[in-house]
Amino acid sequence: MMTIEEMVVKARKDGASDIHLIYNLPPKYRKDGQVVDMSNERLTADDCKIIAKVLSGTPQFYEEYVRTGELDAAATFAGNRCRIHIFRQQGMPSVALRLLSDKIPKLETLGLPSAAMKLPDLHKGIVLVTGETGSGKSTSLAALLDYINHTRCAHIVTLEDPVEYIYTPDKCAINQREVGKDTMSFASGLRASLREDPNVILIGEMRDRETIETAITAAETGHLVFGTLHTGSASDAVDRIVQVFPEGMQTQIRLQLSMVLQAVMTQQLIPKKAGGRALAVEMMVMTDAIRNLIRNGNTPQIANAIATSAAIGGQTMDQALVRLVRGGQITKEMALKYSHDADYVKKNS
User: Fold this and answer.
1) Which of 9, 115, 209, 267 could be stapled to 135 by a disulfide with Cβ–Cβ 3.0 to 4.6 Å?
2) 280 and 179 share a domain?
3) pTM for this structure?
4) Residue 153: what pLDDT?
5) How much is the mean pLDDT over the chain?
6) pLDDT at 207
7) Does 328 fall in a domain?
């Protein structure tokens, strides 16, 4: 059996993003979005147990996996930072291992819309980065925060599960807190962060009412809050936040959100013609019209408002896909597969 280090080295060399280790299957990795075999050797029950123990790091964390059936962690193998999820399936340990970049990439190298370059200049409000798992949200957020780290004197507090990218403080003081190790939950860590004199707060996932409520309060009191959601568009992100609250509170939340929300970036990674993946980004930059739509609950009209905000850097996901087709990076067929409005993409690409 290949060692974890050997798997990570091979995956990094081959440009893979994730490794999957499953009982009675060969080790697999995700390359250009497709899950394929790394070798022909199938993993035995003993292999899976050994791997789980190694990746757990300590006997205490392995016992936590045994007790609960899952464990999140992060570690470095062969010089590569990895995010680890160990879970039980059919009585056997399985592993999903995400390879992170060795270094936090420069913001300008990610292929983000030009409006994204202005986000680190904000001093208050909420910025959301949304998209499905594996769409590059963590990388974009790390690049945004590291840009702040190198350009202004501030205090950054991150709440992550687990800590992924490790920042090297430059102009900023940086505290990275891991849920389950340094704080009990996103909500409790976020409440505590308001007493820690932060300028910038990163919330790894805005997954419950208390976290969202506290994030809005933080933004209202002059903090810049970055957060993630697993939604496929800016309008879906607004709806997801509002729907966390009971119906009697939703009007008030819409009002508050319309005042503090600064931008929403929704990401997809699309297979390129020549291999690799291209980043497609929907960029919602707040305008008076969009704030009114949020306040009045007219979220289905947000996409149209984004489409007409190109002058300030806004673009819909379909506009982003059309640009990638016209630029020769992806095929029209692939753009249609990932589109929201296939007719628009057909007519314009």
Assistant:
1) 267
2) yes
3) 0.89
4) 98
5) 95
6) 86
7) no
The boundaries of the domain holding residue 163 are 107-315
Classify residue 333: in a domain, yes or no: no
Burial tier of 142 (Cβ tally within 10 Å: 0-12, 13-18, 19+) = buried
> Residue 62 carries which side chain, given as an amino acid letter?
Y
Q: In what order do the strands lie in the sheet with 34-37?
A: 34-37, 28-31, 16-21, 92-99, 80-89, 70-77
Measured from the Cβ of residue 149, the count of other Cβ atoms closer than 10 Å reads: 23
| 230 and 273 both lie in a single domain | yes
Looking at the structure, tell me whether residues 65 and 168 fall in a common domain: no
Whether 149 and 289 map to the same domain: the answer is yes
Q: So what's the pLDDT on residue 151?
A: 97
Q: Is 137 helix (H, G, I), strand (E, B) or coil?
A: helix
Q: What is the mean pLDDT of residues 322-329?
A: 96
Enter the tokens of residue 290: 């969009």
Rounded percentage of the chain residues whose pLDDT exceeds 90: 88
Would you state the structure tokens that stand for residue 190, as one six-digit string?
């976020």
Q: In this structure, are 137 and 93 located in the same domain? A: no
Which DSSP helix (H) or strand (E) runs through 24?
A: none
Give the domain-ending residue among 99, 121, 138: 99
Q: Specify whether the backbone of 54 is left (phi greater than 0), alpha (psi in -120 to 50) or beta.
A: alpha
* Contact status, residue 263 vs residue 240, Cβ threshold 8 Å: no
Mean pLDDT over 262-277 rounds to 94
Does residue 88 share a domain with residue 170? no
Lowest mean pLDDT among 79-83, 142-146, 249-253: 79-83
Q: How many domains does the chain have?
A: 2
CATH code, 24: 3.30.450.90
Stretch (H or E) spanning 19: strand 16-21
Cβ atoms within 10 Å of 246's Cβ, excluding its own = 9
**Nearest CA among 33, 25, 161 for reference residue 89:** 25
User: CA-based Rg of the chain, rounded to a whole angstrom?
Assistant: 21
Give me the CATH number covering residue 123. Answer: 3.40.50.300
pLDDT reported for residue 58: 86
